[in-house]
Every structure is written in C-alpha cells, then in structure tokens.
Amino acid sequence: MAVRLPLALAAVAAAQLLLLCRGGAEARVLLTLDDFGAVGDGIANDTQALLDAWTAACTSSEEAVLAVPVGKAYRIWPVQLSGPCKKKLKLLISGAIVAPSSPDEWDGRDPMKWLYIYGVDGLSVSGGGTIDGMGQQWWASTCKRKKTQPCYSGPRPKAVHFEECRGVSVQGVTLQNAQQFQLTFTRCSSVKASFLRVIAPADSPNTDGIHLNDTSHVHITDNLISTGDDCVSMVGNCSDVHVKDISCGPGHGISIGSLGKNRTADMVENVRVDTCLLTNTTNGVRIKSWQGGMGFARDLRFENIVMKNVSNPIIVDQYYCDQPTPCANQTQAVEVRKVEFTNIRGTSATAQAISIACSDTVPCRELELANVNLTVEGGGRATALCYRASGKSVGTVVPPSCLAKS
C-alpha cells in the first residue's frame, strides 16, 4: 500500500519545487501557494496553504522564494508568519491576498492582527500584486463613522504588521482598504518601504499608510499614499528615519506622533522628510503630543515640500487631544527641540498656515523656518501663530514668521 505524504511534504518533495541557479549564485527554492493546496478563487479559505508554504520556505536550507501567483485572489484569515528562518526569504506577491470581508468572520481571532510577521530577518516582499484588507465593514461599524448605537469602539486589525524584524524590504506592491493601519513596523530595524501604492477612502478611519513604532534605520521612499489618516506616522522610540519622494493625499499628512499619551515617555529623533507633495490633506507636516507626556522629539527636518490646498500646512501641537471629552491641563510635556522647516511652498486651505502651540513649562526651542512661502488657496494672505516657541527665520518666510528673524 502506497504511503501518501502530507500535502506540504509532498509539495516540498515534488518537482514543482525548482532549484534556481544563476551562474555561481546560491541555489534558491521556488514554492507557490498552489503547491500547498491553495485555491485562489477569492472565496475558499487558503490560510492553511499559506502557513504550510511559509513553513517550507522558512525551514529551507536554500534561500526560498514564496510566490503568490498572478491572476488569483487568495483569501486569508488572521495568520502569524514567524521566524527565525534558516535563510533569507522572498515573498513574491503577484496576485492578490484578501481578508475576510466581515468582522463576524474573525470568529474570536486576534482583533489586532491580520497578516502578522514576527521575528523574521532578511525578508523581502515584492511582486506587483495587491494586499486587500477589505476594511469596509470594519469602518462602517466604528463609532468614528457610525454616530448611533450600537457602534464598535474596540480594536481593529493592523493589515500588514511586522514586529521584531530586521533587514525587511517591502516594495512594489499595492496595499489597500486596511481594517486599520495599512503597513506597520514595531520594534524593527533596517527597514525599507518603497515604490508602494497605499490607498483607502478619505473617510476610512485610522487607516494610516505607513506607521512606525519603536523602529530605527528606516527608508520610506517613492510611495503614493492616499488614505483616511496619516500618510506616514511614527510614535514611540523611532530614530534615523528618512522619508523621501512621497505623494500624500488625501489623508492627514505626515506626522510625528502622537507622543506621550497616558504620560508615557516617547523619544523620536533624527528624522528627515524630504521632497514630498501633499494634496488636499487635513494637515501638512505635523508634530503632535499629549499633555503630561515625557521624552522628546528632536533633530527633525522637513524640507523641499509642496502643499496644494492643505489645511494646517505646518503644525506643532503640544496640546493634542483626540478624545470625546476635554483633556486635563498638565504641566509635563514631550520636549520639541531642533526642528527645521525648509523650502516649503504652496497653498493652505486654512487661513492659519503655520501653527506652533507649545507648552508653558516645556517650550519648543531651536526651531527654524527657512524659505517658506504659503498662501491661502484661492488667493489671500495666510497667517502664522507661535506660542511658547523660540527659534529663527531664515530668508523669505510667508506668512511673516512669528519666530525671530535671523
């Protein structure tokens, strides 16, 4: 009687697992989800096939390429893809990975995660395909969208969430309609996110495009982000972050923060935001912190940025309060220091184009506005407001700066 191998082992042993050799390069193993029994019709549950394929790729003694074939849609329930893996791994998404459309289909699974990648080093994600969080029913039930009871105020899944990963690259794919954040990195280092298309409707709540938390040595470049919250945001302890060549809008702009919520200590430093186009966003470049927080946001530079019909193009807010009841006044604050806004031009959707509101006890220091030209959309002069902020203005600054002229 013939012995039938389990599907995953049979796939590993079968001829479909190609050893790809290019010259003297190290061999690679090519696996596809179909090798492990995936259907790819957008209806069948292909979660186990993905798990089996991941296990085979992660334990391979050769570098593995795990392919999501073009022309198919693989429906995946919440899943954890864990490391460490034996070799570097490439996830080649040419088709589509889609989430269950209804929150009811989560069936008690972790409501904070959908595609959760933990402890994997050297992972590359590419391929030109799509990751679709199918967040429409999640958004419709939230209290931010639904103003009558019952409404849902609990946690929602982060669509693609990397945690404790190093040397991660995500490029050339589309991420859309996340239940909440679209692409998140937590406690990661050496991260690249480039040539991405990140999209969700303007009224989709909390669908931040790319979100960093406690992550360092990051390059976010050449991305088109159109979403319902911050295009790029960073919180916690983030450092050495370079954001460049970003088209953002609609959305809430590019944000550092919010920091210091619930009296936490957050530290963000050495951030560069360079060569970005912001269109029809509700904020431009922003630093936001809660009263009572601790830590700092320092050594930050925003430069070469064009605003088109942007509300609050330049905003520093140490009084951030995103809750239905007023926030209590507190003396402690996250320190904001050594921040430069350079070569920023365009139009503001609000009369006040520059707003810098800092703490009485922890004022903002060493701020610089250089070569800024912001006018009101449709014509008219914009205004600037500074409170408890010190620094200098360099070159021409329009509207006239409330910082001292250099």
Q: What do you see in this structure?
A:
It is a single chain. This protein is mainly beta and 406 residues long. Helices cover 6% and strands 50% of the residues. The protein is built from 3 helices and 32 strands. The protein has helices spanning 7-13, 47-58, 136-141; strands spanning 18-20, 28-32, 41-45, 63-68, 73-75, 79-82, 89-93, 96-98, 113-118, 123-126, 130-132, 158-163, 166-171, 174-176, 183-186, 189-194, 197-199, 210-213, 216-226, 232-235, 237-248, 254-259, 265-279, 285-289, 294-310, 314-317, 335-348, 352-357, 364-376, 383-387, 389-398, 404-405. The strands form 2 sheets. It has a 21-stranded mixed sheet that branches. Strands 6-9-12-15-18-20-22-24-26-28-30 form an 11-stranded parallel sheet. A hairpin with a 7-residue loop joins strand 1 and strand 2 (28-32). The longest helix has 12 residues, at 47-58. The radius of gyration is 23 Å and the shape is elongated. The termini are far apart. 48% of the residues are buried. Mean pLDDT is 92; it is low at 1-24.
